[in-house]
Design goal:
Blueprint lengths: L6 E4 L6 H21 L13 E6 L2 H14 L5 E4 L20 E3 L5 H4 L5 E3 L5 E5 H9 L11 H9 L1 E7 L1 H4 L16 H12 L5 E6 L4 H10 L9 E4 L4 H9 L16 E8 L4 H16 L11 E6 L7 H10 L7 E2 H4 L5 H12 L9 H6 L6 E6 H4 L9 E5 L5 H8 L9 E8 H4 L1
Parallel strand pairs: 1-8, 1-9, 2-6, 2-7, 3-6, 7-8, 10-15, 11-13, 11-14, 12-13, 14-15
Antiparallel strand pairs: 4-5
Length: 440
């Protein structure tokens, strides 16, 4: 077995699962950097010393995780894969190929920069982050390309050097059978192909970290199958606890690898259901528009700013996002409704990660200008609109209310949608607008 055993992280939404796998990885990389600076230890620029491959279900979530990772990791060691590409290009310096490069340490105060000659080394990537689909196509192609973006020898070398394989929101990354008797034929998802190839090329030495707020036996069976393990050899399930004593008791009890306790929506979230006439899509959108207007014009948030609202349309609502945006704007809602994906879009990898850092950081949407906007009375909050397939795992700092239009597919989906608010101890509300029939 590997020196650091694999694990399945099961904790409620907003509890810090991302940091739970990023901190140990980046701390290890910093230790290697410190050891190499003392003329000893591993070369931090050598990918053969161990890579981290972090798989996410969407590009937006990948950009958010990469934005956090760049803050924690040594400079230059995090590479975001926003689309299928030749992954070996992450190790090429376009100015002087094959030569390590340095960058000037940035400082916001120009006067303090005068006289500084301190340079901080920028290291080569050791952490690749992207959607499972983009990374899978980068390695194996999509069946339509004449060749693979990354050459097969280099791809085998890269996968064989993976030291940590992280699958965040793993229940979205794998095909989960509802029961052992489920014989429905399913194509392998990209994350399953990558995990199986990595486990094979590393001879099982890779440390696999899977994380989700919804974990059950079907997921554990599928994860075991993908990794080539017997169902009894599934990575141990680690759950958060109210205090460290309970957590230590769980981890020290080797007889209980999996503790049968469901992860619920945090107690800081208040849940409401609004039954309406949902006979048509238009009646649902109309009810959602009036609800959004009422919430946005109500009292301020906990921090005194205007309300921040996210509206999520479920698959069951059968409402197209562009139609919903057009209808909501027709009702004259202020601030004007915007698509969540458009708000998170930016040109270039670095700007994309910066946008996500601002959205998930303490300043929320609007970045460093938010305090000035509030002083000028221009802080109107926001209303972001999206589909339930795009919202999984995203952290919108200071989000007050989630409006769910339509009935989610099940309790797990509702848990993930509702978990966008009430995070890290902050209070939030969820309003689910459904038809009278669905509410019965």
């Amino acid at each position: 077995s590997p020196p650091n055993p694999s694990a399945l992280l099961h904790a409620s939404t907003g509890s810090g699962k991302t940091l739970s796998f990023l901190l140990p990885i980046t701390e290890t990389l910093w230790r290697e950097v410190e050891a190499s600076s003392n003329n000893g230890g591993l070369d931090p620029n050598d990918m053969d010393n161990g890579m981290a491959l972090i798989l996410l279900p969407t590009r937006e979530l990948a950009a958010q995780v990469a934005g956090v990772a760049t803050v924690l990791a040594p400079p230059g060691m995090v590479a975001l894969v926003p689309r299928p590409m030749d992954l070996m290009s992450c190790w090429k310096d376009t100015r002087d190929p094959g030569v390590d490069f340095e960058y000037e340490q940035e400082n916001d105060d120009a006067e303090e920069n005068e006289g500084l000659n301190d340079k901080e080394r920028k290291y080569m990537p050791r952490v690749l982050i992207g959607s499972a689909k983009s990374i899978s196509i980068s390695f194996f192609g999509d069946g339509k390309m004449p060749g693979t973006p990354t050459t097969k020898p280099e791809g085998k070398r890269l996968l064989g050097s993976v030291r940590w394989l992280v699958m965040d929101e793993v229940d979205r990354l794998l095909n989960i059978k509802k029961s052992r008797t489920d014989k429905k034929n399913r194509h392998e998802k990209p994350a399953a192909i990558l995990a199986a190839a990595t486990a094979r090329l590393t001879m099982g030495r890779v440390q696999v970290i899977a994380a989700s707020a919804t974990v059950g036996r079907p997921l554990r069976r599928e994860l075991s199958r993908v990794l080539g393990l017997h169902s009894s050899e599934c990575p141990e399930t680690l759950r958060g606890a109210e205090d460290s004593v309970n957590l230590e008791m769980r981890m020290s009890n080797s007889d209980e690898k999996h503790i049968g306790r469901a992860v619920r929506i945090p107690d800081t979230v208040r849940n409401y259901v609004l039954p309406v006439d949902g006979s048509t899509s238009g009646s649902l959108i109309t009810s959602a528009a009036f609800a959004a207007k009422s919430i946005l014009h109500s009292t301020e948030s906990e921090d005194g700013s205007a309300k921040r609202v996210l509206m999520v349309f479920t698959r069951g609502s059968d409402i197209k996002l562009h139609n919903a945006l057009g209808a909501l704007r027709h009702f004259g809602i202020r601030p004007e409704p915007k698509s969540l994906l458009d708000a998170l879009e930016a040109d270039g990898t670095d700007r994309l990660m910066e946008v996500h850092r601002k959205v998930s950081g303490v300043t929320g949407v609007g970045g460093s200008k938010k305090a000035k906007m509030k002083e000028n009375g221009d802080d109107e909050g926001y209303l972001l609109v999206t589909h339930e397939d795009n919202v999984r795992g995203l952290h919108l700092d200071g989000l007050d209310v989630v409006i769910v239009v339509g009935r989610p597919a099940g309790p797990d989906e509702y848990t993930h949608i509702a978990g966008r608010t009430g995070r890290a101890g902050r209070h939030g509300s969820v309003l689910n607008i459904v038809s009278f029939e669905q509410a019965a």
